[in-house]
Write a structure and sequence with these properties.
Length: about 190
């Protein structure tokens, strides 16, 4: 996963330029859409991912003049917006985790290749993991999934969610302990 934008221009510079030239924001969209969409897909399934990703960038575009340009990397900001949009869909997300846990079946949102690749190791633990994710407190689950799926650091996850880094680390620790207690394996 590459984070460099065209001509190595920092996100903050592009966002600031978009204040005067709104079309410049398309570089942020082009660079991060697939990543945000992938995160939304993993959280809510393919049915809602398009809506969440689109809404994330609409909100980001509308709020771009409030972006803290001292932060070169817009990823945590975008993931924070996506997490807030996902929070609106949280009931659907919890149902998505509970259904496979109850039925002991695979997540229908996964692509065939992902299922085949992870089947050997994760197959037996999937219902347990789904149950654990459904039972984790919302804030703890947000931090865990931002770290595990979006590959943010706990500090970046804290920034994305508007919480102190120490709180993010505590939530991550609690979530990992819950996953480990249910599955017998650490959540990374």
């Amino acid at each position: 996963m590459t984070r460099a934008l065209p001509a190595q221009t920092a996100d903050a510079v592009i966002i600031e330029q978009s204040w005067r030239e709104p079309e410049r924001f398309s570089a942020i969209f082009d660079h991060y859409y697939t990543e945000i969409h992938g995160y939304a897909t993993r959280r809510l399934g393919t049915g809602l991912a398009d809506d969440v990703a689109a809404e994330t960038f609409l909100i980001a575009f509308d709020k771009r003049t409030g972006y803290d340009i001292s932060r070169d990397d817009a990823r945590p900001w975008l993931y924070g917006i996506a997490s807030n949009v996902i929070a609106r869909h949280r009931r659907a997300e919890v149902r998505q985790y509970r259904a496979p846990a109850r039925a002991g079946m695979e997540d229908p949102a996964e692509e065939h290749t992902d299922r085949v690749a992870g089947e050997v190791d994760a197959g037996a633990r999937k219902p347990q993991l789904a149950r654990a994710l459904a039972e984790i407190a919302d804030g703890d689950r947000d931090v865990l999934l931002l770290v595990a799926w979006a590959e943010l650091t706990s500090e970046e996850a804290g920034r994305a969610l508007g919480i102190p880094a120490g709180t993010a680390r505590s939530r991550l620790h609690r979530a990992r302990k819950k996953i480990q207690a249910v599955t017998g394996k650490d959540a990374r």
